[in-house]
Design goal:
Length: 789
């Protein structure tokens, strides 16, 4: 891919995928709800800090490595928690999840505690206690094949827990003449637990910043608007940041104080009240803002208020941190919401720090706006761009604690108990069935190659999972042990379906995350094999529904692709096989690759073989010759489109190696589909590998600069990355096929924007102007076959 193929700086985003909305049974439409606690059983953070148990083994259970080659497997586990990491109370899913706040001690230096939100840890024990309800894990109890893999970090301090089953904040403290809300509880850390106030991506907490004293707001009750909001002048607004278990690192600014309702239990009486928190507005990072569109149920609005209008509903989002507009038609109006969030459910308890890494508060909840949406019985809660925090000084005073000084060690004794993982209930695994499944897996050609890769790298991956912190956290955070357990059970009972997701994590999510971390931490040989085989592995995970379908490998192979380079050294990829009206087969690639740097018709085009596992370079193979192509604007169905495409003729090539014969055997993509805005698409290119994206625009105009010439490029496809941490395409990916979720062909990638969005020609004009149709497989005419390599 040429680096100058994205001259136009504009992004014309016409439609993004729509977010799902979460209905609520609380509240009435039209008001702002302040009980949007950032925790919940439906939000699983999935972050595990330390775990050294074998993800496959246990007493009487051989590891996967032992299935292939006998090996001794040690077991050990040390609990660990750090500010900003996920925490969960109990073993059995009866409590919410949130984020570890600060590591503190009682005033005077006694003990070690982890402070987080009270609503995260839940109610104090009442009557019959739920078994193991005092235990707290970071981020949760981790199991692998019915074995507990991590120890609790400590126990809740019961007297700091909530007393009422209610969403209101249940404590406040008076400082001076003013009440400040407190949503905070303590966990007494186990002696052996490692703990620190080092926040990921921010650093060690440097101290506390007492905003109550700094702003002198305790002398008298602050004046506020009727809705309880006191907006801060710009000079008082403070830049802050947080790291939470759900949204991780985000930045914002404190823009207001807000009086929120409280409920406290006094004897047998519930005493309502009000107290102050501060409000944070997100400062979004550069890049595209997520967009959601809601179809308003105006009939219900007008029943409650005949004067209600879509514009009045929009006005309810003023000063929310979101960009909201009215769309749709007068008869069917919609609300278009654009923006990011400072926090989401699962972030409750996260420490909020200023730019000097001093903590100013603890994240407690988000601000929600309720709207009535067509097809939803209950009002829909829309999280705004604002979140609320409790003042750190109020929390410390209420709990009588102080920040553990940075110079004081927080490390407990490391505990390693070889071979003593806790056994829980459940039938034993039938390892003979596992061996039979493995034999079936290796019986096919692709299965044999993937099996060889697994054998070659199993010891290294296992060592990284056990001893490399980054790999270890990724494996457990992405539910690796749970998926292994599901696969083992599926081998015993093939009719069982494989899980589409576990706690909100799909197999593709897990494999993609492990690929990324192993590409950073693995050896050169492991990285090379991942690069060569990731397409097939991810395609298996995406499409398999049961173990028998996994074993049917030929039907599940991802679309082939051939890395190519022309006679002048311009590289790219060909990932569409086509046939012309005379029956001759060609590979479809980009014109700027096949004819780049002045290459002429008939000149050689070379194929670059897959990377070798030992890291040694492999020799290029003569693939064919540069054929006809088109670079410029064409007309198709009455519309103008830019096309950057050319054919690679395959006739007359002798002695093709085995890997090329295997590639030409297919299956190549054959079904063509029209592009749809908002569709999920994917591509596989040499530079960025297999990436998924969202089709942002199907009529994107560009002005690329190719081989010294500027072109007008109307009617293009613009694709944004689905993963905000990755680009969709980059230089070197030119020629990759753009496929939808049904593996249908919709475009031919030729460029990338400066932000990493992909730009592609729609496939229909390309095929039409070249007079070719896609085919699923081919045997190049006149080509002899070498012995398979």
């Amino acid at each position: 891919m040429r680096p100058n193929h994205f001259a136009c700086p504009m992004k014309l985003v016409t439609l993004l995928t729509r977010w799902s909305v979460i209905p609520t049974e609380r509240g009435d439409a039209g008001g702002i709800s302040h009980d949007g606690r950032h925790s919940g059983l439906s939000t699983r953070s999935g972050q595990v800090v330390t775990l050294n148990d074998d993800p496959f083994g246990g007493e009487g259970r051989p590891s996967l490595r032992e299935l292939l080659e006998p090996r001794t497997v040690p077991h050990s586990s040390t609990p660990s928690v750090h500010a900003g990491k996920g925490v969960t109370r109990g073993k059995h899913g009866n409590f919410d999840q949130g984020t570890a706040g600060l590591i503190v001690r009682k005033v005077g230096g006694q003990g070690r505690y982890m402070l987080t939100c009270a609503h995260v840890l839940g109610l104090a024990p009442l009557g019959q206690e739920v078994p193991d309800s005092k235990l707290v894990y970071s981020p949760e109890l981790s199991e692998c094949c019915d074995i507990e893999c991590n120890n609790p970090i400590g126990n809740v301090v019961p007297e700091t827990l909530q007393q009422l089953q209610d969403n209101a904040i249940q404590a406040k403290v008076k400082i001076g003449q003013v009440d400040f809300a407190v949503d905070a509880s303590l966990v007494e850390l186990a002696a052996r637990a490692n703990a620190s106030n080092e926040v990921p991506k921010i650093g060690m907490v440097a101290g506390i910043r007492d905003l109550i004293a700094e702003w002198a707001i305790s002398a008298s009750e602050p004046s506020s608007s009727p809705d309880g909001v006191l907006s801060l002048p710009v000079e008082r607004q403070i830049a802050v940041q947080k790291y939470g278990a759900k949204t991780q690192h985000s930045r914002g600014k404190i823009v207001a104080l807000r009086r929120v309702p409280t409920k406290q239990l006094s004897g047998s009486q519930i005493v309502p009240g009000q107290a102050w928190v501060f409000e944070i507005e997100v400062v979004p990072p550069p890049g595209q803002e997520p967009v959601v569109e809601y179809r308003l149920d105006m009939q219900r609005y007008l029943t409650a208020d005949p004067a209600m209008t879509p514009q009045a509903i929009k006005a309810q989002f003023d000063n929310s941190g979101l960009i909201v507009s009215v769309g749709g038609t007068p008869s069917e109006p919609t609300l278009i919401v654009r923006g990011r969030h400072f926090s989401l459910p699962g972030d409750s308890g996260a420490p909020i720090l200023d730019n000097d890494r001093k903590t100013v508060g603890i994240l407690t909840q988000g601000v929600k706006q309720l709207v009535l949406v067509t097809g939803k019985t209950a009002p829909v809660e829309i999280l705004t761009g604002r979140s609320q925090g409790i003042f750190v000084e109020a929390a410390f005073k209420h709990l009588n604690v102080e920040l553990l000084p940075p110079g004081v060690t927080t490390a407990g004794d490391v505990v390693a108990v070889p071979g003593t993982a806790i056994r829980r209930g459940g039938p034993p695994v039938d390892w003979s069935a596992i061996r039979a499944a493995w034999t079936s897996l290796e019986s096919s050609e692709l299965g044999g190659r993937l099996g060889a890769v697994i054998r070659r790298h199993m010891a290294e991956v296992r060592d990284l999972v056990h001893h490399n912190r980054r790999v270890m956290v990724t494996w457990h955070r992405r539910k690796g042990p749970a998926f292994v357990n599901a696969i083992l059970r599926g081998a015993e009972q093939p009719a069982w379906p494989l899980p589409a997701e576990i706690d909100g994590v799909s197999p593709v999510d897990t494999l993609r995350a492990m690929r990324d971390v192993l590409m950073m931490e693995g050896s050169a040989g492991l990285r090379a094999d991942l690069d060569a085989h990731q397409e097939y592995i991810l395609d298996l995970a995406r499409r398999a529904t049961s173990l028998p379908s996994v074993l049917n490998l030929p039907d599940l192979m991802g679309p082939p692709a051939v890395r190519i380079v022309n006679s002048r050294g311009v590289p790219g990829v060909a990932s569409v096989l086509v046939r012309d009206i005379d029956g001759a087969h060609h590979l479809l690639a980009n014109h700027h690759v096949v004819h780049g740097a002045g290459a002429q018709d008939g000149e050689a085009v070379w194929a670059l073989p897959p990377s070798r596992g030992d890291g040694a370079p492999a020799e290029p193979v003569r693939l064919g010759h540069a054929g006809r192509g088109r670079l410029g604007t064409v007309k198709h169905d009455g519309e103008e489109y830019f096309v950057d495409a050319a054919l690679v003729g395959l006739g007359g090539v002798q002695n093709l190696p085995g890997w090329l014969w295997h590639t030409f055997a297919g299956p190549w993509p054959t079904i063509v589909a029209p592009p749809e805005p908002g569709a999920v698409v994917s591509k596989h290119g040499p530079a960025t590998g297999l990436t998924e994206g969202i089709l942002l625009d199907v009529a994107y105009p560009d002005r690329p600069f190719i081989d010294g010439r500027e072109f007008l490029a109307p009617g293009q496809l613009l694709v944004g990355p689905r993963d905000p941490e990755r680009v969709f395409s980059a230089s070197g990916d030119s020629g990759a096929a753009l496929l939808d979720e049904q593996r249908r062909l919709i475009g031919l990638l030729w460029g990338a924007t400066a932000g990493g969005d992909g730009v592609a020609c729609p496939i229909a004009p390309v095929l039409d102007c070249l007079g070719v149709t896609p085919v699923g497989s081919a045997e190049p005419a006149g080509a002899a076959r070498e012995e398979r390599s």
